[in-house]
Amino acid sequence: MVDRYEKISSPACAIVDLDGTLLRGNSLRLLISHLAAKLWRERRYALLARVTALLAARRVRAISHVAMKYPLHRLAARTLDERETERFVTARLLPRLNRSLLRRLAAMKEQGCRIIIATAAPDLYLPSLCRHVGADGWLATPLAERRADYLETRGNRKKALAQRLAAESGEEIILVATDHEDDLPLLALDGVSRLLVNPTPKLKMMLGLLSLPFEELR
Predict the structure, then answer these.
(1) Which end of the chain is less crowded, N or C, counting CB atoms within 10 A of the terminal residue's CB?
(2) φ/ψ of residue 81, rounded to 5
């Protein structure tokens, strides 16, 4: 795998998952915690109660993940300005980055490979995060006007968007880094190297059943 990276001679990119992969943790949960703390400081108790109610409803499976995520994404977009979003990234996300993976990606970038963060997380903080980690682009879940139009960037949708982004730049996807079976559509692409970062047992089992080789990184 390392030799292949050192011999990159044509336009190429690496697709890197965020939560549980580049980040040791879940960025949405961290965002909710940051948002709740801000609402508490500002004594915006009605909105804080709304956040709490959404989390409680999701905990008991009364609502779907998207039914919880969409209003929280919308509230965060309305509440956190650019300065506060930057504070969230630096205080909550940067300390939890996977430094081993960052070093691997930096070596690939030195050889001319573009690094693309692709995640189902809200798009709110991806521009700032990319600047800090030196990523060349990102794919994330955009905020929609209506919940019915709110589509998460995961699974086959993430695969299609990543392929489109690579094609627009005339690039080949040479690496997929992830921890979760949601990214199996990307991992199943022909010719990619598969880097599993603290993977779920289910993901390892699925790749084994499909006879797809992979490397693990902790």
Answers:
(1) C
(2) -80, -175
pTM (2 d.p.): 0.93
Which amino acid would we find at residue 113? C
pLDDT digits (tens, 9 = 90+) for 115-160: 999 999 999 999 999 999 999 999 999 999 999 999 999 999 999 9
In which residue are the tokens 């992979």 written?
A: 214
The vertex-95 CA angle with 91 and 150, nearest 5°, equals 70
Length of the chain: 218
How distant, in Å, are the alpha carbons of 63, 139, 141, 188 from that of 151?
16, 12, 7, 22
Q: Are 126 and 83 in contact (CB under 8 A)?
A: no
